[in-house]
UniProtKB/TrEMBL annotation:
<keyword id="KW-0413">Isomerase</keyword>
<comment type="similarity">
    <text>Belongs to the HAD-like hydrolase superfamily. CbbY/CbbZ/Gph/YieH family.</text>
</comment>
<feature type="active site" description="Nucleophile">
    <location>
        <position position="9"/>
    </location>
</feature>
<keyword id="KW-0479">Metal-binding</keyword>
<keyword id="KW-0597">Phosphoprotein</keyword>
<feature type="binding site">
    <location>
        <position position="76"/>
    </location>
    <ligand>
        <name>substrate</name>
    </ligand>
</feature>
<keyword id="KW-0460">Magnesium</keyword>
<feature type="binding site">
    <location>
        <position position="52"/>
    </location>
    <ligand>
        <name>substrate</name>
    </ligand>
</feature>
<dbReference type="InterPro" id="IPR006439">
    <property type="entry name" value="HAD-SF_hydro_IA"/>
</dbReference>
<feature type="binding site">
    <location>
        <begin position="9"/>
        <end position="11"/>
    </location>
    <ligand>
        <name>substrate</name>
    </ligand>
</feature>
<protein>
    <recommendedName>
        <fullName>Beta-phosphoglucomutase</fullName>
        <ecNumber>5.4.2.6</ecNumber>
    </recommendedName>
</protein>
<dbReference type="InterPro" id="IPR010972">
    <property type="entry name" value="Beta-PGM"/>
</dbReference>
<feature type="binding site">
    <location>
        <position position="11"/>
    </location>
    <ligand>
        <name>Mg(2+)</name>
    </ligand>
</feature>
<feature type="binding site">
    <location>
        <position position="145"/>
    </location>
    <ligand>
        <name>substrate</name>
    </ligand>
</feature>
<dbReference type="InterPro" id="IPR023214">
    <property type="entry name" value="HAD_sf"/>
</dbReference>
<dbReference type="Pfam" id="PF00702">
    <property type="entry name" value="Hydrolase"/>
</dbReference>
<dbReference type="InterPro" id="IPR023198">
    <property type="entry name" value="PGP-like_dom2"/>
</dbReference>
Amino acid sequence: MGMCGIIFDLDGVLCYTDHYHYLAWKALADRLSLPFDEQVNNRLRGVSRMESLEIILSLGSKTYSQEEKEQMAAEKNRLYRSYLERMGPEALAPGAVDVLRTLRENGWKTGIGSSSKNAPLILERTGLDGFFDVVADGSQITKSKPDPEVFQLAARKLRLSPDECAVVEDASAGILAANAGGFFSIGLGDAAQATGCRAVLNALYELPELCRRLYSRAPKFKPSDPTPFS
């Protein structure tokens, strides 16, 4: 079988919750009197919650126990989820629904590979929860990107090998993870500049045409093969 699976990072690719992350981290940093701004926030993209917290705490000189750090991470997540509860389809990337619909109509298996433990809530709030065969998220893995674990898990759930899947990412850590796992890496936004990126999208709506070209290089895959959407 040739290329037949597409695994998506969620935040920054299919929807945008960066601002909610920023507001939640900013509230925590302000409470701790740490100099958090958009530039620091950019360093957190594609990074796990605990690793993000370590980056923020490194802005100050005080040391904290593991228990205190876990309480801070939980505080941040409560704030973030409170914002997510109020979000809706307006947070979707332009054309996201049309792109996903086109891919499934053409027989591509689709999955989510996100480090976020909030992926199910985001999918539910944005109305995307019915568009994917599988979801692999931060609650199911022990290592975050650039480790390829989340993409490998998504591929296993799809019952595909990494060389049968493309990964769409907006962060360099995600491109590194995709490449490390043997996936075909597709960069969108900042990830388009990442070293080792196999293909580049200027906008999400270009993905179906790129997938069509990928399929042309994978003649063993037939779009008429059965999928969960048929």
